[in-house]
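Session log. Operator J.P. requested a structure for one protein chain; no other inputs attached. Running the standard single-chain path with token output.
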Amino acid sequence: MGNARARIVMVLLVAALAAVVFGTTATPAFANHRIVKFGVKSFGATGNGHTNDTGAFQRAVEAAHKSRYFGVVWVPRGTYAISGVYVGSDVHVWVEPGTRIVLAGGAIKNTPAFYFAKQGVYSKKSSATGWTVSSSVVGYHGRFTIDLSNAPTTRNHAFKFINAKRFRVANVNIVMNNANNMGGSPSSYVAALTFQSSMASRAGGPYYHPLYGKIENITVSHSPYGFGAAQITSGSRLVFHNIVSWGGIGLRFETDTPNPSRVNIVHGKGISCFNGHAAVSFSPHTQTNYAVHMTGVHATSCESGVRVAGGSGHFYRSSVKGLYVRNGSAAQVNNPRVSNPAIGAWLTGRSKSCVSKGAGIRYKVSFSYLRCGI
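Structure written below.
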């Protein structure tokens, strides 16, 4: 009994020392695992907000991936300019609270700060099949910020998820690159987080898309009308928890991707919209989707609480349980005087509806426990 207690005390002491002296090469973590940390500054990152630190981040990721232990990429507080960092299998990026990440100059459209995908996913069939497995980017005991307010293009993301399995992103504040409230087209044409299938996916499967992912504690601000926190065009067994979008849409299930895709078995809890378009949007286009379930959806001064759009596609066996809508006068509302190509044009106005339903809907989303206009 005495020896057992001595061993427990020793483990606790070593763990406490590791928490203080963060940066040791190997420290106990949990049963049968050792954490090996790779600091991005050891690989050449400057953290000055101007120098492109993408290469340093990628080298740290590759070193963590090659480790035979629990590989952690440590990002100490600073401002880092990066673009298109691929988070590989068995890699976990821990970001110190207060850190700011910006998109490096020269980043082309549709490039995120971080990819959860295999490198070469857009150009090599071998990379478009299969998945990266077991990876994460999290604020370590607090939040960090990805600032897209001065991103090089109108189509830069914070995260892009393609063929990734068992992943997690948590504790992030994201600033979008402006929102045009003058009635014109938005200056940002993407969501902060996007989920899609790879070009190797096939109709009816296999779908090389995000699987078994958890996204939690995300706040997105300065979002334009048609976009917001997340757009999910393909993915399975995903969980979203505590997602807040100031402007735009909290979770946008708009399945209009050219690659064969499907959304099924997705759960969301605590999804909120403030001064925006809607907390949740269902828009299947021609795609058949299944089992999307939202619980605890809140909209304050948004055009709608939930948007349900038409199309020939479906969201079978999907539901919203607990919808709380508080009307206001700072909502983003559609500007009918502006047509394509100025998509997503909007004006500031009053909330319009609890649930907005479009024409030609061929599916039913089940609603329960609604409190509208509170």
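Operator note: Residues 2 and 27 are 24 Å apart (CA to CA).
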